[in-house]
Amino acid sequence: MVSLIVRRFFQLILLLIGISFLVFMSMHIAPGDPASIIGGPTASASDLEAIRESLGLNKPVLVQYVDYLSGILQGDLGYSFQTNQSVADAIMTRFPNTLNLAIASMIVAIIIGVTAGIISAVKQNSWFDVSSTTIALAGISIPNFWLGTMLILLFSVTLQWLPVGGLNAPFYTVEGIKQLILPAITLGTGSAAMIARMSRSTMLEVIRADYIRTAKAKGVRQRGVIWIHALRNAMIPVITVIGVNFGALLGGTIITEQVFAINGVGRLMIDAIAARDFPVVQATVLLVAALFVLVNLIVDIIYALIDPRISYD
């Protein structure tokens, strides 16, 4: 396990270097000039050249990348072209909102998805199974921006039970929980549908296994067979789906943050792309990539804890 973690960290470093290079080059190849955006329509040619020189944009691209990479290795993510704020500070200010939203969405997805999947497998071909399968298909198909808008119209505008948007109260307060409910449901619906379908299919395979029939023959109660014997083995593929979806949620909150006016990393990335703010875009993409790889590493570790037969040697 220790060797696995060490190997994955080395792979993480190489992966982030490759991603940083691709993102850096993509931002410089794409049309648009940050100096023109910063200087505005009234800036003269000399003003634009002075802006490029102050930002280091007049250097060769590879030299700029080497300077950027050396800054990252020293813990310096640079400064925003637009606000002149430290990129690290800008991200750390907004990242808690994105993390809280992703965690809340994943909790919603796990509770709904795993519960619905297990019940559907145990009651195969029942009305509950057919209904949950249909709802899961709808959950995967419905766009987040539409679902979020409908939830706002129903629970915020019509019923006035929950706030329209924002995420400015601490998540452990009543107001913070209220602010998280609608965006968490919006973002977690698609993941819940995928988890439900995977839970159902894996549970159906497990409950037909020989050791489950043996447990039933020995007189073990149905609840014990499902929750003690079957669930642990059925959860291994489900954990993969949960891990992948959680990594995707951390980087896929952009639309939900826009709909609910949440000041998170997703909105920061969108604003930075529109303003051609290279340091902010590069830092946010690297953050999302690093989190995705770390989540997959945690999933591998959980695999070994659930099933000791799994070896990574």
TrEMBL record:
Q: How does it sit in the membrane?
A: Multi-pass membrane protein
Q: Which residues are listed as membrane-spanning?
A: 12-30, 101-122, 134-157, 177-196, 238-260, 280-306
GO cellular component labels:
plasma membrane
Say which family it is in: Belongs to the binding-protein-dependent transport system permease family. OppBC subfamily.
Record carries keyword Protein biosynthesis: no
Q: Which organism is the protein's source?
A: Sediminibacillus halophilus
Q: Which residues form the ABC transmembrane type-1 domain?
A: 95-299
Instruction: Identify the domain of life.
Output: Bacteria
Q: What is the lineage of its organism?
A: Bacteria, Bacillati, Bacillota, Bacilli, Bacillales
Instruction: Please report the name of this protein according to its UniProt entry.
Output: Nickel import system permease protein NikB
What is an example of a GO molecular function annotated in this UniProt entry? nickel cation transmembrane transporter activity
Q: Which Gene3D superfamilies match?
A: MetI-like (1.10.3720.10)
Coiled-coil stretches: none
Subunit and partners: The complex is composed of two ATP-binding proteins (NikD and NikE), two transmembrane proteins (NikB and NikC) and a solute-binding protein (NikA).
Identify the keywords attached in UniProt to this record, alphabetized: Cell membrane, Ion transport, Membrane, Nickel, Nickel transport, Transmembrane, Transmembrane helix, Transport
SUPFAM superfamilies in alphabetical order: MetI-like
Its localization reads: Cell membrane
Spell out the InterPro entries in the cross-references: BPD_transp_1_N (IPR045621), MetI-like (IPR000515), MetI-like_sf (IPR035906), Opp2B (IPR050045)
Chief location? membrane
